[in-house]
């Protein structure tokens, strides 16, 4: 339990004891029956870097996605609002674990991970099953005009992923904020308009556009910011929130 939550903190943070997190990870591994599989994680940097994992490493690589075909390895990404994405090529027995915040989503990290699987292991998108886990939802994820403009410049479907005055912000039509132009007294200028972004919808669209069948893309509807009783949310709780973990691996053949 952490702050009344049923979830375990699985991330090594400055405020939590390393031994406690290690114990939590052991409990997690036992609960999902993977305690014999060494865990490979990353130093996540909100990038589009994909690391090829062939064996456990003493030091975590700086990246935001992992892929492997090595049986017996467990790939893990940590989240507390960003989207955890797991990919499995059921034909070639290849997997990937992806951490996608708005920067990674903008950089198409899920599609690039799929491309790395194709390059390294001959993965075909039609053979891939994808799972997108709990993340901050459209209901709670407010972003500014710079994010709306960046997505509008990159994706033809971007408008479908936003609520609020997307067209206004995406095209740089920000309202005037000087008091003498708005006819409002100093200190009473309304805040600039913002929009709400659906990160899961954006990543789902990218995977489908890359050839993963929509029927094979499974998306959780849990919002991390809404369900603070159950999930960790950096946006809602700040730097002292915990971290969840999404894992995937290839079991050795019996």
What is the element layout, followed by pairings?
Layout: H1 18-31, E1 39-40, E2 42-43, E3 50-52, E4 61-62, E5 65-68, E6 74-79, E7 83-89, E8 94-100, H2 102-106, H3 109-121, E9 128-132, E10 142-143, H4 145-154, E11 162-163, H5 166-170, H6 179-182, E12 195-197, H7 199-209, E13 217-219, H8 234-237, E14 244-249
Could you explain the architecture of this structure?
This protein has 254 residues and is α/β, with parallel strands linked by helices. The protein has two domains: 1-140 and 199-254, CNF1/YfiH-like putative cysteine hydrolases, CATH 3.60.140.10; 142-197, no CATH class. The chain contains eight helices and 14 strands. The chain has a six-stranded mixed β-sheet. A three-stranded mixed β-sheet has the order 1-6-14, with no helix packed on it. Strands 10-12-11 form a three-stranded antiparallel β-sheet. A hairpin with a 4-residue loop joins strand 7 and strand 8 (94-100).
């Amino acid at each position: 339990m952490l702050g009344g939550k049923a979830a375990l903190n699985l991330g090594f943070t400055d405020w939590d004891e390393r031994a406690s997190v290690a114990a939590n990870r052991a409990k997690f591994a036992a609960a999902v029956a993977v305690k014999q599989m060494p865990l490979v994680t990353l130093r996540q940097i909100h990038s589009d870097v994909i690391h090829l994992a062939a064996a456990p490493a003493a030091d975590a690589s700086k990246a935001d996605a992992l892929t492997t075909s090595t049986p017996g390895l467990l790939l893990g990404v940590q989240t507390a609002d960003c989207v955890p994405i797991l990919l499995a090529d059921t034909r070639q027995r290849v997997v990937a674990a992806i951490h996608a915040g708005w920067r990674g989503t903008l950089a198409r990290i899920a599609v690039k991970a799929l491309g790395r699987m194709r390059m390294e292991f001959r993965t075909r998108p039609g053979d891939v099953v994808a799972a997108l886990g709990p993340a901050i939802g459209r209901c709670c994820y407010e972003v500014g005009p710079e994010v709306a403009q960046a997505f509008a410049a990159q994706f033809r479907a971007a408008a479908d992923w936003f609520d609020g005055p997307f067209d206004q912000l995406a095209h740089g039509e920000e309202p005037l904020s000087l008091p003498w132009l708005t006819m409002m007294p100093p200190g009473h200028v309304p805040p600039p308009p913002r929009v709400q972004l659906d990160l899961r919808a954006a990543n789902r669209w990218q995977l489908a556009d890359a050839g993963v069948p929509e029927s094979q893309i499974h998306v959780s509807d849990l919002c991390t910011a809404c369900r603070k009783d159950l999930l960790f949310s950096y946006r809602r709780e700040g730097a002292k929130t915990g971290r969840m973990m999404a894992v995937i691996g290839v079991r050795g053949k019996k």
